[in-house]
Amino acid sequence: MKAITEAELAAAAVILAEGAEPSAQSVFLGDKALLFNEGRTAFVMYGRIRCSWISAGDPVGPASELAPMIASFARAAAAASAWPAFYKIIPANIDAYLENNFLVGKVGEIARVPVAGFTLDGARRRRLRRSQKQARESGVDVTVVPAGEGEPFLRELKSVSDDWLRQQRGREKGFSLGAFDPAYVRRFPVVVARVGTSIVAFATVWSSAVKREVEVDLMRSTAAAPSGTMQAMLVDLMQWARDAGYASVSLGMSPLAGVNPLGEGGRLQTLRRSFTNFTGRFYNFEGLREFKQSFDPDWEPRYLASSPGIARSLVLAHLAALTSGGIAGMFRK
């Protein structure tokens, strides 16, 4: 059952229109609860599992509401006898969490590619040039379809997504990972790769209202997609983003990248294996980091802010469960 009402979703959409991180668009998955401030100018989107309330990102809204929303979320969690946590917070906001008595630790890195001077030239993008050439020689043609204009081929996108799920031998995830739902997909621009008249791959794109950045959400392909198709889609997306006035393209986060695996007495090393087993077998995080590195991105850290009373490894275990659709989902493909 979805945790969000249509009225809450409408209120969140108004706040997003004022400007937010692209990943805040994941609110439209409808799988997270929302906590608003009194004036409904800011919100926290979060999942509840066992003794944890985990926010998917920083509070969304004006900078002036950051600290009050952190405190409000902490109070609401405490009133429910739960431990509050914020996942994937940005470096600029760390002090606000420390001032509210949270512990902050690194949980991964996002890959960001500035697009103003993006080029395939240079030794660092040699592999990327080769991949794109393979795709073009195989007849791959890429277009970016504006938000709301993908309805005529939505069924074909669903077929591509289903093929991809079969290849992964998995099922849809959620929370901080996108999922295919027609109502969700039609909200966003879609990068489509075709060979002839057939769609062989696609990617959905989140954007910030102030045109600062776009972020890749879903990326899916059929088993028949030629080698280099995904790289060709992202190269064209970067050119599209540049022409549309965006400053950068985010390729998303590599979880647990740059994190000391021996932290918390070795429990993070165990958690790294568990996180890979429960979600990495589906998304292959190590392979994704290598894929992103071919774009020679700038890597920026992301953090987990958690309560002193609960181990970070336990919060991340609960996060893996939320992503998999609950504790039972962790043990189902």
Q: Output the helix-strand order.
A: HEEEHEHEHEHHEEEHEHHEH
Beta-strand percent range:
15-25%
Tally the structural domains.
2
Total strands: 11
Number of helical runs? 10
Q: Biggest sheet: strands, sense, closure?
A: 11 strands, mixed
First-residue to last-residue Cα separation: 20 Å
**Rg, Å, rounded:** 20 Å
Structural class: alpha+beta
Question: Uncertain segments of ≥5 residues (pLDDT<50)?
Answer: 261-267, 277-283, 326-333
Helix content: 25-40%
Notable characteristics:
333 residues; Aminopeptidase; 2 domains; alpha+beta
Structural overview:
By secondary structure, the protein is α+β, with helices and mostly antiparallel strands. The protein is 35% helix and 25% strand. The protein contains ten helices and eleven strands. It has helices at residues 6-16, 66-79, 94-99, 126-137, 154-168, 182-185, 229-243, 267-283, 285-293, 312-323; strands spanning 33-36, 43-49, 52-56, 83-89, 103-114, 140-145, 190-195, 198-207, 213-221, 248-255, 298-306. An eleven-stranded mixed beta sheet has the order 1-2-3-4-11-5-10-9-8-7-6, with helices on both faces. Helix 4 (126-137) packs across helix 7 (229-243), helix 8 (267-283) packs across helix 9 and helix 8 packs parallel to helix 10 (312-323). The two termini are 20 Å apart.
